[in-house]
Amino acid sequence: MKVLHFFLFTLVAFLLNAQDTSIISKPTKIYIYEIKEEISQPAWLKTQKAFKEANDMDADLILIHMNTYGGLVDIADSIRTKILNSSIPVWVFIDNNAASAGALISIACDSIYMRRGASIGAATVVTQDAQALPDKYQSYMRATMRATAEAKGRNPDIAQAMVDPDVYIEGVSDSGKVLTFTTSEAIKHNYCEGQAENIEEVLKLAGITEYEIVKQELTAVDKIRGFLVSPIISGLLIMVIIGGLYFELQTPGVGFPLAASVIAALLYFAPLYVEGLASHWEILMFIVGVVLLAIEVFAIPGFGVIGISGILLIIVSLAFSLVESDGFIVEASNLDKLGKSFALVLISMFLGLVGSFWVAKKTLQSRFLGHLALNTEQVSTEGYTSANLQFNNLIGTEGEAATILRPSGKIIINDEYYDATVEAGFVEKGQKVIVTKYESMQLFVRKI
After folding, report:
1. Which of 153, 298, 382, 429 is the most buried (most CB within 10 A)?
2. pTM, whole model, 2 decimals?
3. Is residue 264 located within the same domain as residue 232?
4. In angstroms, rounded to a whole number, what is the distance separating the alpha carbons of residues 288 and 415?
5. Short-list 113, 285, 103, CA closest to 183
């Protein structure tokens, strides 16, 4: 009996030991994706895809392979927040540069590894031409960098010095310049865990010997979507939308400007809708704006409230579709982005209108497309006149409104019906009117 108990005990111990060994020897699942471009909407889309796939495959580690000079602060902040809230550890391997927004993302990671000759820092918020923005932007970036460093147990003063040249840290930052670390300096001050030349060396330094690497693979749809949501392409699409609409409204019946505008609108809204930025109400607002603008141009002489309302709806819909919002409610952190969205839309609309003027001029002067315009000159010596003498003879004649003139409608003079427009206000059916002028093939009247 004792022999049997001993045998069973030995068997159980062997199985448990085998099970523990299998757990220990299980390879580490590592998900790798790259940020080797400007920190903008495409980088955010890649990050969202990476964290979703890493969670789906139950990865043990997410590793970012980075080489960037920076980019948009709001996008960097979104990526930073994603990293800080991740249940999976996130490491970064800086292959050369992690400047500006790239530094913020790197500091948010659990571990930082750098290549020899790499650098991290220089996180001052600047414009496109490298001019520092006002202090309110720098203040936000300073606080964000400090908070991120504190969250990861790094010196927050060093993080702030990467934004603010006035920060003095003895032996670290005392030159009055924005701080940037080399690899050895970053290691010395706990802003880098080690120097490595490639991913394999990073894992070796971390003591990971058995691992399974899964690299992010972007589909054709991912690449197209990332391309379309970039600020430059969004601006170009807005230019085509507005330019095409204006060209078609000015020369109805041509067709191709309207087709270009519709295609550009689909390319603009579709990826934003898929990403959850553009909502149904924003797309509907855009359509209503276009309809109101068409009504103003084709149905109502002049330009008034309906046309202005249509333009405002188009502007608001295009701008809000670029920002996360709950209806017209936008979080405080997104207000700056909303302002930039409005600026992008307004500048693109202006350039679209200017472009449509230029295209119209070049098109109508083209030898191949010049037939869209009448080039023959009609001179009075050949019997052509700018107005029909019959209508000129009606000036000063009294008549009666055959329909309501609001402001256009029908009038009757000597039992003959004519199209007419009232100069001001409106005229009820049956009221007396007098013809005041004839211009642009149109009779103008006023109420008697």
Report:
1. 429
2. 0.65
3. yes
4. 41
5. 113
Q: What is the total count of domains within the chain?
A: 3
Are residues 445 and 434 in contact, defined by beta-carbon separation less than 8 angstroms? yes
Six token digits for residue 57: 């495959």
Lowest mean pLDDT among 79-83, 313-317, 340-344, 430-434: 340-344
Residue 18 lies in a domain: no
Residue 133 Rama label (left phi>0; alpha psi -120 to 50; beta)? beta
pLDDT in tens, 188-233: 999 999 999 999 999 999 999 999 999 999 888 787 877 887 878 8
* Amino acid in the structure at residue 148: T
Query: Higher-confidence residue: 318 or 329?
Result: 318
Helix (H) or strand (E) holding 445: strand 442-447
Mean pLDDT is highest, among 137-141, 198-202, 277-281, 443-447, for 198-202
Q: How many residues does the chain have?
A: 448
Residues 206 and 230 in one domain: no
What is the distance between the alpha carbons of residues 146 and 180, in angstroms, rounded to a whole number?
Answer: 15
pLDDT tens digits along 269-284: 888 877 767 788 888 9
Which phi and psi angles does 61 have, rounded to 5°? Answer: -155, 140
Please report the beta strands in 361-403, taking only residues with DSSP state E, as ranges in sequence order: 398-401
User: Cα dist. 277→50, 77, 115, 324 in Å?
Assistant: 19, 17, 37, 5
Locus of tokens 């109805």: 252
CB 37 within 8 A of CB 231: no
Handedness of CA 388, 390, 393, 399 (dihedral sign): negative
For tokens 């690497």, the residue is: 213
The two structure tokens encoding residue 352: 């679209």
